[in-house]
Design brief:
There is one protein chain. The protein is α+β, with helices and mostly antiparallel strands. It folds into two domains: 3-126, no CATH class; 131-226. The chain is 55% helix and 18% strand. It is built from nine helices and seven strands; from the N terminus they run ααβααββααββααββα. The chain has helices at residues 3-10, 23-38, 47-50, 58-68, 101-108, 113-128, 144-151, 158-166, 182-225, and strands spanning 45-46, 75-84, 89-99, 133-136, 139-143, 171-174, 177-181. A four-stranded antiparallel beta sheet has the order 4-5-7-6. The chain has a three-stranded antiparallel beta sheet with strand order 1-3-2. Strand 4 and strand 5 (139-143) form a beta hairpin. Helix 2 (23-38) packs parallel to helix 6 (113-128). The N and C termini lie far apart (62 Å).
Length: 226
């Protein structure tokens, strides 16, 4: 197989998504992103594929991204040479941005309702698909400790037991094992996602305050030397 054929075989056979894209097209790309995640890619979202869903111009989208996101945490940027296969010559360097999935949700999906609806169906279903479900009295449950472990939440914190005390109707105990209803597990996840989002915003604010302080210090030094 030639290099051109390899590139075509591994690339996604789709055009960039935009506001005219239908739900099926968006779903297919999101499912492709999940495949990239499973292959070990942390920055699995091609920015060129998704920015037209929200922005009218790429330069504005990039400025907004660089303002509100942290490089090498929320996104990666690099220049790559694009080979002109027809002319068999190197093309112009191409600037590429890749996002994490949380940044896809924060920066793109949540800004357009129907896009977020597709995102939620694809990614939230993927998140829960590998958890075993139990049936008690006609209701669906997850093993509470397994759910917390799966979501990366603490299994020994005070909030772990506090949820059971505050919402006993959402839990069921069999032997020494607690089970949480499928519906309430979604509520827990949303609350934790909000807490993590607030923490991320605080970290970004501290990051930009540090940059601003460094710039002010640099300006003051330059002013003193002039």
């Amino acid at each position: 197989m030639s290099k051109k054929e390899e590139m075509q075989a591994t690339s996604l056979p789709m055009v960039a998504l935009d506001r005219e894209s239908n739900r099926e097209e968006i779903r297919k790309y999101f499912e492709y992103v999940i495949q990239q995640q499973h292959s070990g890619k942390e920055f699995s979202v091609d920015f060129d594929m998704v920015w037209p869903l929200v922005f009218q111009r790429k330069d504005i989208a990039i400025k907004s991204l660089e303002l509100y996101a942290v490089k090498d945490v929320d996104y990666q940027f690099f220049r790559q040479k694009v080979e002109n296969y027809d002319a068999h010559t190197p093309g112009r360097p191409e600037e590429k941005y890749y996002l994490t999935v949380p940044m896809l949700e924060y920066f793109i999906a949540r800004k357009v309702r129907y896009v977020f609806n597709v995102y939620r169906r694809v990614f939230h279903h993927e998140v829960m698909s590998d958890l075993k479900m139990y049936q008690f009295s006609g209701h669906a449950y997850y093993d509470y400790m397994e759910f917390l472990r799966h979501e990366g939440m603490s299994m020994v914190s005070g909030s772990c037991r506090a949820r059971i005390r505050r919402n006993p109707q959402e839990f069921h105990k069999r032997g020494n094992v607690w089970y949480v209803t499928r519906m309430y597990s979604g509520v827990i996840r949303k609350n934790v996602e909000l807490q993590r989002a607030y923490q991320t915003l605080r970290e970004r604010r501290e990051h930009y305050l540090q940059l601003e302080a460094q710039q002010l210090l640099l300006f003051s030094k330059e002013g003193g030397e002039s």
